[in-house]
Amino acid sequence: MLYREAGQFKTTYADDQALLPIAQDRIGLLLILIVAFVAMPMFASEFFLSSIMIPFLVFSLAAIGLNILMGFAGQLSLGTGAFMGVGAYSCYKMTTIFPDLNILIVLLLSGLFSAAIGVVFGLPSLRIKGLYLAITTLAAQFFLEWCFIRIEWLYNYNDSGAIEVPQRMLFGLAITGPHATPITRYLVILSVVAVMTLVAANVLRGRIGRSWMMIRDMDIAAELMGIRPLFSKLSAFAFSSYYCGVAGALMVFFWLGSAEVESFDINHSFLILFMVIIGGMGSLTGCFMGAAFIWVLPVILRAIPTAFELDILAATMEHISSIVIGVLIIFFLIVEPHGLARLWRVGKEKLRTWPFPYAN
Amino acid sequence: MSANIDIAGMSNSETQTGAQAQADAKEVLLSVDNVTLTFGGVKAISDISFNINKGEIRAIIGPNGAGKTSMLNVINGFYHPQKGRISYKGKTRKRMKPYHAASSGIARTFQNVALFSGMSTLDNIMSGRSLKMKRGLFWQILHVGPARAEEIEHRAHVEKIIDFLEIAHIRKQPVGKLPYGLQKRVELGRAMAMEPELLLLDEPMAGMNLEEKEDMSRFVLDLNSEFGTTIALIEHDMGVVMDLADRVVVLDYGQKIADGTPSEVQSNQRVIDAYLGVAS
Fold it and tell me: Distance of CA B90 to CAs A11, A207, B47, B100, B265, Å?
């Protein structure tokens, strides 16, 4: 009843092509943004911000990166973790070489290195498709992990082999390093993720995004319509890796504080792959849903015993949460193989016509 | 050509463009000379020559496996023939890439519907405008100013095609869920969006019922007379071919066995033999 666009007439193409043509969606997004930017920093606890919201946003951004490649351009990749690593290490190198450069600029530049590496490992996509391509990106994963250990220059010849985030200031406020408060780190990440999501949405609805989807849905037809697969596929790899790289840099600089090669291993790639599959391929909203499902839900499940003062061992709770999450993944994939985003869209369609499902 | 797309003011200019098409009917748009295409030891096309005049509807017919679709694939640069030349608009190219074919005004539809199934009807037809959109990454990211203006300008053009094909009601629907007949129509719209000079239609009426075939025939004729688009058509329904085509070329086992007006082809003994078989 509430979710109905009746009476919202569009008289120009510009209105009709708006990102959110339906007023209820715009109000909903506004509410989410107000909660995220105002209510969260005011009311949420430090624990909630630093171990739920910050990782959630980082993973959402990484999932957007992978989703651009998998869901929109149709190229499988298992190297997400490594591409995030490239972003993190290049961010670290740049900020130690140029300590005075604004950290946000360094952050955005570090994605470029990741994009370049992504293009190199995207080259096989011109000849091979699907699962076979996934295997070649696996090569990227292992090769880059090897680089992160063996090339000592990358971590400034540390004995520990880890990168330690130095303190960097923005407007006289510590935003990275041990003295940065969760609230500032959260707000920086939130701003970066919000802007980059908007950019992704814009690119995806324009000419470039359309060319990716053309390649995804029917590559031969796309080629005969004048899309050059070389440019289209490699630009998708570049764009996707850029997002993954920035997400990796955000992860180390604003969440973990220090990182070794283990932070970017194959499990990490799988984690983000699951987020994309559960959330919904080819949907930006799905990325956030998938990240919430895979990351936030287990944290909440593990917090249940302490909240209700139940006498359950932490290890037992760990197992229970794995079981519950596993069952839920199977359940949701049976109900809707196209992910939570599709479920959400179907729900909205039903709401539009409720209570007269045939009045369409 | 693009200026003529205004549907409302069409009735006046219709006769003019039709007459004009007649006048320069002799101008050759595309000519195929001695083309041979082999896959390993299999000769798909052997030593075929024919031409397509500007403004005509040219049918390519033949039994299954005659090499008709291979011929279209050669014309728009997807296959590269081992021998022979193809001249388009007077220019001869040894190897043509699909990108060059598309940007010089050759568009096509496919035998099996090859729509972008995850996208809406509107986006499918918009994708036909890809080559005409020029704004770079910077404006795409901001999606304001020039990029937005460009998007709206092309949307207006696409809406005219949607009107022409009478598919306004399915504008926002994902094409994967549409019935077959409408999918074929959307595919024609997508090819039209490229504003082609030469449109290759690969069995546009396959699997349609009579009514859908009649609709599609009307669209093909209108497209030819109103926009002056030259059309090369592969079709198995002989009634449709004989009614629509100005000239017909007949292939069998990769060889050309007849070329001429529909009535000439119809009475050609070799064509009759190819279709009905010969008692040896």
Answer: 45, 32, 20, 15, 27
Distance CA A95, CA A180 (A): 17
Determine whether the interchain pair A13/B147 forms a contact, defined as Cβ–Cβ distance below 8 Å: no
Domain of B176, in residue numbers: 114-194
Best of B96, B111, B143, B184 to disrupt the A interface by mutation (most A CBs within 10 Å)? Answer: B143
Long-range Cβ contact pairs of A328-333 (< 8 A, separation 24 or more): A328/A293, A328/A297, A329/A274, A329/A278, A332/A278, A332/A293, A333/A277, A333/A278
pLDDT at position B11, please?
A: 42
Alpha carbon distance A360, A142 (integer Å)? 52
**Strand A169-170, strand A173-174: pairing:** antiparallel
Q: What pLDDT does residue A298 have?
A: 87
ipTM of the complex: 0.84
Q: What digits encode the pLDDT tens for the residues A51-70?
A: 889 999 999 999 999 999 99
Decide if A84 is inside a domain. Answer: yes
Q: Which chain B residues have a beta carbon less than 8 Å from that of A231?
A: none
Residues of B in contact with A227 (CB under 8 A): 99, 130
Number of domains in chain A: 1
At CB < 8 Å, which residues of chain A contact B?
12-14, 16-17, 199, 202-203, 205-208, 210-211, 213-214, 216-218, 220-228, 282
Give yes or no for residue B21 having a pLDDT over 70.
no
| Sequence-ordered alpha helix ranges (H) in chain B | 10-23, 68-75, 98-103, 121-127, 137-142, 146-165, 180-192, 210-227, 238-244, 262-266, 269-276
Let me know if residue A195 belongs to a domain: yes
Mean of pLDDT values over A340-347: 89
Residues A208, A213: Cα–Cα separation, whole Å: 9
At residue A208's C-alpha, the angle toward residues A206 and A211, to 5°, is 110
- In this structure, are B11 and B82 located in the same domain? yes
Q: Does B155 touch chain A (CB under 8 A)?
A: yes
